[in-house]
Amino acid sequence: MTRSYDLAARHSWRGAFVAAALNAVAMPIDFLLARPIPKMPMFPSAMSALVAIGLIVFLLIRRQRATVRLGSMVFLLNTVAMLVALWITSGYWAAAGRAWTPFQAHKLGVLAVPLVAPQLGVGLASIAGFAATAIGRFYFLDPAIQRGFPVGEPWFVLIYALFGGVLLVYRVRGLALERDMLRVQAEAAATEQLARTFLRLRDYTNTPIQTIAFTTELLRTKHHDLKPILDRLGRAVEKLTAFSHALTRYENAHRWSPGDESPGALLMDEPLFGSEPATEVTG
């Protein structure tokens, strides 16, 4: 069964991969949409997309050795590449004098992070990065350009950041509950396997204990001189019997499946104590 940590590493790898794929696809599209903007450079979008492609290749190479830390580091690097590109391109958008929804890419990024962030801290840092980059870029613009912004900008991005943070917390808590359920299921499966082993041990020992008890009583009636030795054997049999009775407490913990209760199922299953497996003889 998949362990909780393995599931967390898988979620982290998948989130980083999807984020890098979105970067690799979205940034070239952003450049194509910005072609009418005078002197819009191509290198920010190209740099961000190339970084994303490199991270995708790296993730594919490390897929079988994925960890939560690896996914988080890749996610942060991908976010930084996008923020650097958006810092450059948003200045050209703002100075173009055309109809423009300010910092639309930053707002989309704030809402996309909760869907793919590997961890809570990484997601909050990314959301804060998108919001802070938008606000910081606004104050680096010429005052004349700032006055052309719609009322409330760039502070509207903080509302997006608030909603993004709530969505991120909700998603991370859901993933944590999923991993907890997986851990509980794994523990239940281990307990059931332990109960099965104990019941096999009880079944293996019941017949030998009865044989020893019967033989001891038979020898006691015929050889009175062996009484001290037979008394020790009797006490040993009592301890083994008590141990066998103690194992019955695990019987209710085991969920029997068809065939488990038959002697043939026990004989055909894996042996205890390293003995050779017995085969059921059919007539």
The coarse silhouette is rod-shaped
Span from first to last CA? 39 Å
Number of helices: 9
Unreliable residue stretches: 261-270, 272-283
Approximately how much beta-strand content do the residues carry? under 5%
- Biggest sheet features: none
Helix content: over 70%
Q: Helix and strand string, N-terminal first?
A: HHHHHHHHH
Main structural class: mainly alpha
What's the mean pLDDT score?
A: 82
Cα radius of gyration in angstroms:
34 Å
- The total strand number stands at 0
Ordered list of secondary-structure elements with their pairings:
Blueprint: H1 4-33, H2 43-61, H3 68-95, H4 104-116, H5 120-139, H6 143-147, H7 156-222, H8 227-246, H9 263-268
Helix pairs in contact: 1-2, 1-3, 1-4, 1-7, 2-3, 3-5, 4-5, 4-7, 5-7, 7-8
Explain what this protein looks like in three dimensions.
This protein has a domain at 192-268. The protein contains nine helices and no strands. It has helices at residues 4-33, 43-61, 68-95, 104-116, 120-139, 143-147, 156-222, 227-246, 263-268. Helix 1 (4-33) packs antiparallel against helix 2 (43-61) and helix 4 runs parallel beside helix 7 (156-222). The longest helix has 67 residues, at 156-222. The two termini are 39 Å apart.
